[in-house]
Amino acid sequence: MADLFALPAVSGLAYAENFLSAEEEHALIKGIEGVSLAPFRFQGWTGKRLTASFGWQYDFDKATFAPTTPIPEFLLPVRERAAAFAGLDPETLVQALLIRYDPGAGIGWHRDRPVFEHVVGLSLGAEAVLRLRHRKPGGGFVRAAQALAPRSVYHLTGEVRHEWEHSIAPMEVTRWSVTFRSLSERGKTMQG
Questions:
Q1: What is the torsion angle, in degrees rounded to the nearest 10, for the CA atoms of residue 163, residue 182, residue 119 and residue 71?
Q2: Looking at residue 83, which CATH number applies to its domain?
Q3: pLDDT digit string (tens) for 119-129?
Q4: Positive/negative CA dihedral, 96, 134, 175, 13
């Protein structure tokens, strides 16, 4: 079997370890646990991961996109640092998604909704693998992967954001994540 980690990086993927200190990670996990998390819902199906959206929310049951509760204060300093990592103005990261992956929870293959543009994620508590795939013209997939260490950050933009799907395999231990997103031009037209 081929070593997925030996594949070249996908254009548009940036990654850094030790983005947060252990103390910052602990404080973020405590903050996430202090928020009302609910099972992820998708077209009537309930997922194993627990989530909460702030700033903007995409409702997968109703296929609607609307403002929701403002991003909590405890996330604003880390949003500023995540934006700096991605080369963005912090104010452009208008959506925050908090997720707790309990054992057995993961995320299937997907692309983030087209109302969003930049995706900046923080991985907390346990290592995970960000799996990537791109459909080949003749069928099948080109695959790649990026290990996500605890306290790391990644940024999806350009090719990896728009042409590749990503997923996280089901976890064996509890893991948390914070994902910040900016609005795409399409999303900006929907906000008015």
A1: -150
A2: 2.60.120.590
A3: 999 999 999 99
A4: negative
39, 50 contact by CB (below 8 A)? yes
**What are the residues whose beta carbons fall under 8 Å from the beta carbon of 151, sequence distance 6 or more?**
17, 18, 19, 20, 21, 22, 24, 25, 122, 123, 124
**Dihedral sign of CA atoms 76, 79, 84, 88 in order:** negative
Banded model confidence at residue 133, pLDDT cuts 50, 70, 90 = very high
Range of the domain at 53: 4-190
Number of folded domains in the chain?
1
Model confidence pLDDT, tens digit, residues 42-62: 555 656 789 899 998 876 666
Q: How far is 118 from 54, CA to CA, in rounded Å?
A: 16
Cα separation values, 24 from 45, 73, 123, 124, 153, Å: 34, 14, 12, 10, 13
Q: Residue 133 class from Cβ within 10 Å (0-12 exposed, 13-18 middle, 19+ buried)?
A: middle
Q: Counting Cβ atoms within 10 Å, is residue 1 exposed (0-12), middle (13-18) or buried (19+)?
A: exposed
